[in-house]
Recover the amino acids of this structure.
C-alpha cells in the first residue's frame, strides 16, 4: 500500500469537506502542482485528512508489513510522545500530488466504483450493491438530547475533524456513533468491521464527544460494505456541532 503525505494546504481543504466514511475522504488530483509527486491514479483515498492512498491495482495487492509496527501505535506511549512519533512518521512519507475532495454525485459514484474494483481484483469478498437512497447513507434526521454522548473511532492519533482550541467543535459532515457502540468496538479492527470502513486501517483512537442539545444529526445503521459486516449504529453531524465541554485526549485501543 503506497502512503503519501498531504501538504498543509490540502489538509486544510479536507477539514471543510464532509467525510465519505469515518476518517476517510475520496479525492481526485487537483488542478495544479503543489510540490508533491505526480498523480498516478484517477482517485485517491485520504485517511484522517493527512495521508493519501492511490486507488489502483497495487492498493491492496500485498499485506502491509509496516503500519502495525509504527512507533505511534505503541500502546505504552503517552499522548504527547504518540503525536510526536506520528508526525515524524508522516514527515517521512512521499509527498502526495495536489488533491481535492470529490464533491459531485457523479464523482462520488466514480470514486466509489474504483474502490469496488480494487476489492474485486484482489479477491476480497464482493461488496453488495448499495442504491443511492441507502448508501448516502443515513436515512433519518433528528436532534441530540441534552445529555447525549457519542464516540468516534479514527485511524490517526491527531484528528483534523475535532477542534479542541477555543470553543470545542466538531467539523461539518463528521461521523460518530452512540455510546452503546463502544461494547462492540474494543479494538481498532473491530471498529473497521462494525462501521464497514473501506480502507481497512485499524481505527485505534476513540474520541468522546458531547454535542450541545439540539444539534442536527443524520442517523441510521451501517449497511454491509467493502466485504465488512457493518451493523453498527452511526450518526453524522451534518452541520457540525459545538461541544458542551472540553474534549479529552482520545483513548488508544489495540489494533487486534
Amino acid at each position: 500500500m503506497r502512503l503519501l503525505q498531504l501538504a498543509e494546504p490540502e489538509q486544510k481543504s479536507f477539514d471543510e469537506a464532509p467525510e465519505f466514511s469515518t476518517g476517510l475522504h475520496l479525492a481526485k488530483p487537483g488542478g495544479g502542482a503543489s510540490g508533491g509527486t505526480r498523480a498516478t491514479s484517477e482517485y485517491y483515498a485520504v485517511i484522517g485528512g493527512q495521508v493519501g492512498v492511490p486507488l489502483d491495482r497495487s492498493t491492496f495487492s500485498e499485506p502491509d508489513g509496516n503500519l502495525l509496527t509504527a512507533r505511534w501505535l505503541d500502546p505504552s506511549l503517552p499522548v504527547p510522545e504518540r503525536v510526536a512519533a506520528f508526525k515524524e512518521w508522516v514527515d517521512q512519507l512521499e509527498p502526495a500530488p495536489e488533491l481535492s475532495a470529490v464533491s459531485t454525485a457523479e464523482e462520488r459514484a466514480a470514486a466509489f466504483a474504483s474502490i469496488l474494483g480494487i476489492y474485486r481484483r484482489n479477491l476480497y469478498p464482493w461488496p453488495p450493491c448499495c442504491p443511492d437512497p441507502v448508501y448516502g447513507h443515513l436515512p433519518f434526521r433528528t436532534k441530540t438530547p441534552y445529555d447525549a454522548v457519542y464516540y468516534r473511532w479514527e485511524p490517526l492519533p491527531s484528528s483534523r475533524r475535532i477542534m479542541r482550541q477555543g470553543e470545542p467543535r466538531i467539523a461539518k459532515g463528521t461521523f460518530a456513533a452512540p455510546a452503546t457502540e463502544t461494547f462492540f468496538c474494543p479494538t481498532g479492527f473491530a471498529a473497521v468491521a462494525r462501521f464497514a470502513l473501506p480502507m481497512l486501517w485499524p481505527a485505534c483512537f476513540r474520541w468522546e464527544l458531547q454535542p450541545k442539545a439540539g444539534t442536527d444529526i443524520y442517523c441510521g445503521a451501517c449497511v454491509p460494505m467493502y466485504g465488512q459486516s457493518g451493523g453498527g449504529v452511526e450518526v453524522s453531524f451534518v452541520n457540525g456541532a459545538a461541544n458542551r465541554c472540553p474534549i479529552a485526549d482520545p483513548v488508544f485501543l489495540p489494533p487486534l
User: Anything to note?
Assistant: Helices lie at 8-15, 79-91, 105-121, 188-194. The chain has four helices and 16 strands. The radius of gyration is 17 Å. Residues 121-136 have pLDDT under 50 and may be disordered.
